[in-house]
Design goal:
Elements lengths: L23 H7 L21 E4 L38 E2 L4 E8 L6 E7 L2 E6 L3 E9 L5 E10 L4 E7 L2 E6 L4 E5 L4 E4 L6 E7 L2 E6 L4 E7 L4 E8 L7 E7 L2 E6 L2 E6 L4 E6 L5 E7 L2 E6 L3 E6 L4 E6 L5 E7 L4 E6 L3 E6 L4 E7 L6 E6 L5 E6 L4 E6 L8
Antiparallel strand pairs: 1-3, 2-3, 3-30, 4-5, 5-6, 6-7, 8-9, 9-10, 10-11, 12-13, 13-14, 14-15, 16-17, 17-18, 18-19, 20-21, 21-22, 22-23, 24-25, 25-26, 26-27, 28-29, 29-30
Length: 397
């Protein structure tokens, strides 16, 4: 959620933003199918035969739809309920405490965990452990509710764990250590070097950076003539174990891993600081020249660009898996291991509320569209949800 690159509302100056958030306004202005439902495509790559869509009107709710819990808990108490059924917490479709409502849920969007999401001009891409990359098109229904149509499925050689869109290329990090790169002109390139899953991708000054569970950060540069990417540096010394997230801030690359957070000097490519605590980092988010760090145990910290700690907070919802920056508010969204989402107000960094988005499954990916308070949740079970925070509050239920 950096302040950089916000000078152009139509997104022309923002094309290297890693979350692709600049494209949402473009997509929302060009959505087709108003009043025609979900429709169908002539493409043979839809890949959504088994999907089931659950809708909850965020802008024009049906009578009584807001505030209802959409899935019943199975059994009673903790653990297993009657007849061995697993207990699952109830989910909500409306969060009045922070004016958040759910537009739709696509069950079975993928056959397994949705590990990463990114937005491009063409639509929203999701990568999953089911070895598929999918593209989704948001469409506005006749009731004013956004729905998601799967319009393309790309088989991957292994499960997908990270996504990045930059410079006309879509990069997908895989379980086996490869990075698949797809160009808008149809070119495909394969980046080989990592030995384990590629968990995080970033771009800085035209250099692609990848972090992996093999404890390495690799730097890649493109050969424009051949449209291939060559590894120029492989960095492992003093990094904090298997890597979960990287992010460039100021003159440093912040590297989050199993054993904490390291600061890598971009000029020397050497680690200059290891920031306490030495606990597993799950995600990083930039805001106004600071880095927000999520730890798996349920704590978040804020550091400045020089690594000085400014604030910290523990969340009652427990282990944090994902962070995302919502421009509406603005807010930090924290996705938890038991299906909750916590919201934190910025810049005060005060906890606002928490709600149950998923019935006990992990929130394995979060994506903020960068427009109109829209955000998406990718579930451990392959479900995909679209939510919105509405400035001024939700309509009456």
């Amino acid at each position: 959620m950096s302040e950089r690159g916000r000078s152009s509302r139509d997104g022309r100056d923002n094309r290297d933003r890693r979350d692709g958030g600049w494209t949402w306004g473009l997509i929302s202005k060009t959505v087709s199918g108003r009043g025609r439902g979900r429709g169908r495509s002539s493409s043979s790559h839809w890949g959504h035969d088994n999907r089931h869509v659950m809708k909850a009107d965020a802008l024009k709710p049906r009578r009584g739809s807001w505030g209802r819990e959409t899935r019943d808990a199975k059994g009673k108490g903790k653990g297993k309920g009657h007849k061995g059924r697993e207990w699952r917490p109830k989910t909500v479709v409306r969060v009045d405490a922070d004016a958040i409502g759910r537009h739709c849920e696509v069950r079975g969007a993928h056959g397994s965990s949705i590990q990463a999401m990114v937005m491009t001009e063409q639509g929203i891409y999701t990568a999953s452990q089911d070895k598929n990359l999918k593209r989704w098109k948001p469409k506005l229904s006749s009731t004013g509710v956004f729905e998601l149509e799967a319009e393309l499925t790309v088989p991957l050689p292994d499960s997908g764990h990270s996504l990045l869109f930059s410079g006309g290329w879509l990069f997908c990090g895989l379980w086996d250590g490869q990075v698949q790169a797809f160009a808008q002109d149809g070119s495909v390139s394969v980046l080989k070097g990592h030995s384990k899953r590629v968990t995080t991708l970033a771009v800085h000054q035209g250099v692609l950076m990848s972090g992996s569970a093999d404890k390495e950060v690799r730097l890649w540069q493109m050969d424009p003539a051949a449209k291939t990417f060559n590894c120029t540096h492989a960095i492992e010394e003093s990094l904090p174990g298997p890597i979960s997230k990287i992010h460039v801030l100021g003159n440093h690359l912040f590297v989050g891993g199993l054993y904490g957070l390291a600061m890598l000097d971009l000029a020397t490519l050497k680690v200059t600081k290891l920031l306490p605590p030495t606990k597993a980092v799950t995600d990083l988010l930039e805001f106004q020249g600071h880095i927000i760090v999520a730890y798996s145990e349920g704590m978040i910290k804020i550091f400045d660009a020089e690594g000085n700690q400014k604030s910290e907070k523990s969340l009652d919802a427990g282990p944090i898996l994902r962070l995302a920056g919502l421009e509406s508010g603005p807010r930090v969204l924290c996705g938890h291991a038991r299906g909750q989402v916590s919201t934190i107000t910025l810049p005060s960094f005060e906890f606002k509320t928490a709600f149950q988005a998923l019935p006990g499954q992990k929130i394995d990916s979060l994506l903020c569209a960068g427009h109109d308070g829209i955000f998406l949740i990718g579930s451990q079970d392959g479900s995909l949800q679209l939510w919105q925070r509405v400035e001024g509050g939700l309509p009456p239920g």
